[in-house]
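Posting for a labmate who doesn't have an account.
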Amino acid sequence: MGIMGALRATVDQAAFEAFRRSFRGEILRPGDAGYDEARRIWNGGIDRRPALIARCAGTADVLTAVRFARERDLPASVRGGGHAVAGHAVVDGGLLIDLSAMAGVRVDPETRTARAQGGCLQHQLDRETQVFGLAVTGGIVSHTGIGGLTLGGGIGWLMRQLGLTVDNLRSCDVVTADGEFLVASEHENPDLFWGLRGGGGNFGIVTSFEYTLQPVGPIVLAGLILYAIDDAPGVMRFFRDFVGEAPDEVGVIATLRLAPALPVIPEHMHGMPIVGLVVCYAGPVKEGERLLRPLRALGKPVLDAITPKPYLEHQQMLDPAFPHGRHYYWKSRQLPPLTDEAIEVIVEHGLRITSGFSSARIFTLGGAVARVDQDETAYPNRAALHDINIVGAWPSNDPDPARHVEWVRGFWSALAPYAGGVYVNFMSDEPQAAVQAAYGTHTYARLVALKKKYDPTNFFRFNQNISPVGP
């Protein structure tokens, strides 16, 4: 039975027409113009075919879609930005509830708050807040959706100074699994608000987020400094020592990849392994120049592109490295301060990288992230100093994609003796045991209890899933 046959077995034509009449947005079925485009997401390796795509125009449409799927026992997935590497946004043979048209942002510069709809992308939020010289911690790739980013925690350039995205979340408008509307905040449904701050999309569809904003930019001191791979051990040791002493205003990511064929990089290095440090200082530029002087005096860089620039420009700097349509496979580890042995593993696997599109990025946490009490939100392991995101990426016509997956898995396995924890937003499609391990026993037990209360039938299950029946 094909997709439409399965749909007809569940939804008769009269029910479908009633759904269409009650829905303000667009509803697409296989064969409709725009269907194939609407089912595609960032990871080109995901090729799934929903029976229906409900492109919501507002919260009323989300309520209607959830009730429609619930009444007919249709599996339902939720798309915000469609950036989750595991492709949870798209369900085969079910209902895709698409929020991408819900991308409005309203900023109040007097109260320094912003309200953004659930389908908003990072660059859309940044653009509106930067008009007033304000920002909230956001992702480092600007076409990421704020929904998944926020619900998983939210790491980015500003987190050491301002905390995670969830640490700046004031309230959420939520459509629950039973098709009801709730507000979650410190004062309304605080248990749900706790779970939404790190527990992913397990408890409902957030149709809008309210954030606290802080003054940022509009000019920051930021950019990339690159070194030959032979310098990698020394660069990584410097990175370890530098971030241990740097003030919270300094955000630093270490990266290993193959050098792209860019005019600013010597031609003889194109396609060769390199190591880099990407920084963002969100304070006064003169003070930033003083603080970053030791970094810029390190060794003989191949490229030093650290410069005063608009924060918006820096937020989009890495976009070309993570385009839509490429095939992606990720794994992640959270790490304490790097030991010499861990650095050796990182450099060794950087030398083995299998694709010019793959990379390893080592984020620096600490600062404001670590100052929030562990039980205040569902985001786990605030004591970790680093998170490494091991990214396998390749074009759709690659003749041997398995080698890239093997590189990611081998790198991830080799770091096991030095790691503890994982960032759920960087997980691929993992079994429930891995999700439980990511949260830890105490937090996971609280999340299971919350799931039993707000989604006892596991309606929202296409995510890093927390089962209401526990492990």
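Reply:
Got it, the structure tokens are right above this. The domain at 105-215+447-454 is CATH 3.30.465.10 (Uridine Diphospho-n-acetylenolpyruvylglucosamine Reductase; domain 3).
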